[in-house]
Amino acid sequence: MKTKPVLAAITTLAVAGALAACSGGDGGGGTDGGGGGGDASNCTNEIKNPDAPVVTLWAWYPNSETVVDNFNENNDDVQVCWTNAGAGGEEYDKLQTAISAGSGAPDVVMVEADRIAPFQAQGGLIDLTDLGYEDVKDNFSEGAWKDVSVGDAVYGAPIDGGPMGMIYRTDIFDQYGLTPPTTWDELEATAQELKDAGGPVFASFAANQPATLTAYFYGNGAQPFTYDPSNEGEIGINLNSPEIKEVLDYWDGLVDQGLVGTEDQFTPEYIAGVINGDYATYLSAAWAPGYLQGAGVGEGADAGVWAVASMPQWDPNSPIAINWGGSAFAVTSQASNPELAAKVAFGVYADQASLDEGWQNQIIFPLNNTVLDSEEFLNYEVPFFDGQQANKDVYVPAANAYEGMTYTPLGQYYYSALTDQIAAIIEGSATGSEAADALQEDVVAYAEEQGFTVTQ
Predict the structure, then answer these.
(1) What is the structure's pLDDT at 88?
(2) Virtual torsion, Cα 254, 274, 400, 20, nearest 10 deg
(3) Burial of 124 (0-12, 13-18, 19+ CB in 10 A)
(4) Under a CB-based contact definition with an 8 Å cutoff, are residues 359 and 365 in contact?
(5) pLDDT digits over 1-14, tens only?
(6) Arithmetic mean of pLDDT over the chain
(7) Are the beta carbons of 243 and 455 closer than 8 angstroms?
(8) Which stretch is the leader sequence (predicted)?
(9) How far does CA 25 lie from the centroid of its chain?
(10) For tag attachment on the chain, is the N or C end more exposed, with fewer CB atoms within 10 Å?
């Protein structure tokens, strides 16, 4: 059994304000019902079969109502009552309140993958292994399932992900005679060449993107955490490994040489810089084109100038695919009928019409193999990338090769601590290696204060 201090820490972390991985949701698509919890009388959508049992659902994607309507039209034995309880942190705060109170949670809830472990550790989510997982496990890759699992148990039905690539401006690359780098060494050399020629910075190293940097760690073969709840409060923390120090020292060097920008991302100022050509590339996830277009990128003078290439590798002979973001549907422990709730979790956003509508409108990058394997999806000429078959070229191979991450109940504290260390690197008060050592000391101390037994 975990000690009470561990559970108290997890409760604190679940409502912490640290930045988490983005998965492309913008909180639109429906009236904010204020978190209707298990109350099926407060549905944003229309119930198609009022005689069927109802499963309540919180979800924030812009096309949630369309997806729910598709499910309700195709299922006579269960209906979904959907509420937009807010996107990301807003929803998580409401879910945390419901878990702490023991009531008020929906039957099914949308969560980002890195939020599953904290809610699971409080007993807020239920294992789906025996509730239909076996029927759908072949629909997704092992990496997709790992991201929604805690130990050997499955706590989420995958929806979408963020296989990463290097989005770049073809106008800048053409002007300066550049080619997309395939290794991190080549990236540094290309960035220096661009600077020497009077061009813009090559990329961005932002303090407010710890999830992206964590993906970079995995891309160098690091394993920052090991965690399995069956080991009763034990957690492995290895944040100053040689692989992580190499990544941090690398970015420290790019900052020192003035080869990358250090502005926070997802701000109006940053987006203005992207539009104005202040950055040659944007190292980001497959959901990024939808986000960028929503922010006004790819219009006017910078329309038709974007392309995407595979992420640089540390060892091109042993490439590692990385991922930033991704969401799932989880069943809460307050579900009145776990079997029906699991059917909804596995079935919503799983029918062909919903999947097609999602990717065709660049709302999500679906992880369902029926989409990833389809010729229509593979050969799709992405308008944002001026007709490039980006799925075939970059994103589908990355999604198929991705092996997953290990998330822990300490994830949000770790993000906050890593944000502090990125800031220290940017301001020059710590080298990359020093930041890694400080990060390890900070997170280990916090974990031990909360009652975890830490291993390496």
Answers:
(1) 85
(2) 80
(3) buried
(4) yes
(5) 333 334 333 433 33
(6) 90
(7) no
(8) 1-20
(9) 10
(10) N
| DSSP alpha helix (H) spans, 24-156 | 64-74, 89-101, 116-121, 134-136, 142-147
Contacts of 429 (CB under 8 A, 6+ apart): none
> How far is residue 53's CA from residue 338's CA, in Å, rounded to a whole number?
12
Q: What kind and span of H or E run contains 326?
A: strand 323-331
Let me know if the fold of 15-162+325-390 is the same as that of 164-322+407-455.
yes
Hunting for tokens 């930033």 — which residue is that?
324
CATH architecture of 164-322+407-455: 3-Layer(aba) Sandwich (3.40)
Per-residue confidence band for 29, with pLDDT thresholds at 50, 70 and 90: very low
By DSSP bridging, strand 157-169 and strand 323-331 are antiparallel
Report the length, in residues, of the chain: 456
- What's the CATH number of domain 15-162+325-390, 3.30.470.20, 2.60.120.260, 3.20.20.80, 3.40.190.10? 3.40.190.10
Long-range contacts (CB closer than 8 Å, 24 or more residues apart) made by 315-321? 316/182, 316/183, 319/401, 320/218, 320/219, 320/220, 320/221, 320/401, 320/403, 321/143, 321/163, 321/164, 321/397, 321/398, 321/399, 321/400, 321/401, 321/402, 321/403
Alpha-carbon distances, residue 383 vs 61, 179, 259, 297, 320 (angstroms):
21, 21, 29, 12, 27
* pLDDT surpassing 70 at residue 308: yes
Return d(Cα 64, Cα 82) in angstroms, integer.
8
pLDDT tens readout for residues 291-303: 888 888 888 888 8
> Residue 125 and residue 154: Cα distance in Å, rounded?
10
Helix (H) or strand (E) holding 274: helix 268-276
Within 13 Å of residue 342, how many CA atoms lie on the same side as its CB? Answer: 18
Q: Distance between CA 250 and CA 273 in Å, rounded? A: 24
Q: Which of 46, 65, 59 is nearest to 91 (CA)?
A: 59
Average pLDDT over residues 172-177: 98
